[in-house]
Amino acid sequence: MEKGKVSITMAIWLAVLLIILGVIGGAVLGFFGARRYMKNYFRDNPPINEDMLRSMMMQMGQKPSEKKLNQMMASMRQQEAKK
């Protein structure tokens, strides 16, 4: 084998290896970046649960019945599904 052909083959393998490592590294960094973003998002904008709705209704002077709470939760889920 000629010396020139060996170095071309090694260069191709090196390029393939670097591309694979780049893709894996990007996936790992993307995963942790998205995870951090979602943690911050949920810390700043927590999802509303039934207890929060109950306290909001009590603050507005309404008596929170289970039927009304279930209707409001179903309405909120339906609004989220539309998005």
Automatic annotation (TrEMBL):
A Pfam family that the UniProt record links to this protein: UPF0154
GO CC, alphabetical: plasma membrane
InterPro entries the record matches: UPF0154
Regions that span the bilayer: 12-34
Keyword Transmembrane part of the UniProt annotation: yes
Keywords linked to the UniProt accession: Cell membrane, Membrane, Transmembrane, Transmembrane helix
Highest taxon above the source species: Bacteria
Location(s) in or outside the cell: Cell membrane; Membrane
Primary localisation category: membrane
Coiled coil segments of this chain: none
Topology within the bilayer: Single-pass membrane protein
Family indicated by similarity: Belongs to the UPF0154 family.
Protein name: UPF0154 protein L248_0888
Species of the source: Schleiferilactobacillus shenzhenensis LY-73
Lineage: Bacteria, Bacillati, Bacillota, Bacilli, Lactobacillales
